[in-house]
Specification:
This protein has helices spanning 42-57, 211-214, and strands spanning 2-6, 14-18, 22-26, 32-36, 75-78, 86-90, 93-95, 111-113, 116-119, 125-127, 132-136, 148-151, 156-160, 164-165, 172-173, 178-181, 192-198, 217-221. By secondary structure, it is mainly beta. The longest helix is centred in the first third of the chain and has 16 residues, at 42-57. The structure holds zinc ion. Zinc ion binds next to loops.
Length: 222
């Protein structure tokens, strides 16, 4: 049985957790405490959402392309963008990984990751979950030589590190269209999809938390 809860802090970020799965609750102090997931009522919803978000914000530094994560816990998610169950390798926001320069938004000289990285083997089909227009090029080398954007009415969705692009610049896509295959181009840490959301025409420094557009559903936390 899947218990789906609504995150009260991020209205469009839907979370679901398999009932009975132990959710590791990571607190700022560091200790990990395994808790059984109750069937959430209204008062528990925000707690469950907070604990899952806390877990994802302190995700392991395991290379995103590895099939066996190095550090637990790992959040496994599904999304209409890739269909199958994959784990989040690097979350959006501040982190201590060496790939990102220090950012003024982050404490302790930490860097800022402008998207979310979902581990998946090279060649995984990427399916658009939105209607939009394809914008090729102009993203720089960090995203890989074939990274591109899907531009909707009010945002750009960046698909990074892809190995093959199946659409042309200017092409209109609709939900369900396979637009690319994932890969490791430009990625220092193995094959994964870098999923990023910006304002239309915006720079990476303007990237927003992409989880709402990813429409990820948490399948399990191990
Ligand atoms: Zn990334």
């Amino acid at each position: 049985m899947i218990v789906t809860v609504k995150c009260t802090r991020s209205s469009a970020f839907r979370l679901s957790v398999a009932a009975g799965v132990a959710v590791p609750l990571l607190l700022a102090a560091g200790p990990v405490e395994a808790l059984q997931v109750p069937t959430p009522d209204a008062s528990q919803t925000s707690w469950l959402a907070r604990s899952v978000l806390a877990a994802t914000s302190q995700l392991p530094t395991a290379a995103a392309g590895q099939q066996k994560p190095m550090v637990n816990p790992v959040v496994y998610v599904t999304s209409p963008w890739f269909g199958q169950v994959r784990y989040i390798g690097i979350n959006y926001g501040c982190n201590k990984l060496p790939y990102y320069p220090p950012d003024s938004r982050c404490p302790g000289h930490q860097g800022f990751h402008h998207g979310v990285d979902i581990a998946m083997p090279t060649g995984t089909p990427i399916t658009s979950a939105v209607a939009g227009r394809v914008v090729l090029g102009g993203l720089g080398t960090a995203y890989g030589s074939r990274a591109f954007r899907i531009r909707t009415a009010n945002r750009d969705i960046v698909l990074g590190h892809v190995s093959r692009v199946l659409v042309r610049s200017g092409q209109r896509v609709k939900p369900g269209d396979v637009v690319a295959y994932s890969g490791a181009l430009g990625a220092p840490d193995g094959a994964h999809l870098h999923f990023e959301v910006r304002p239309v025409g915006g720079a990476y420094t303007q990237a927003k938390n992409p989880m709402a557009q990813l429409r990820a559903q948490v399948v399990a936390i191990r």
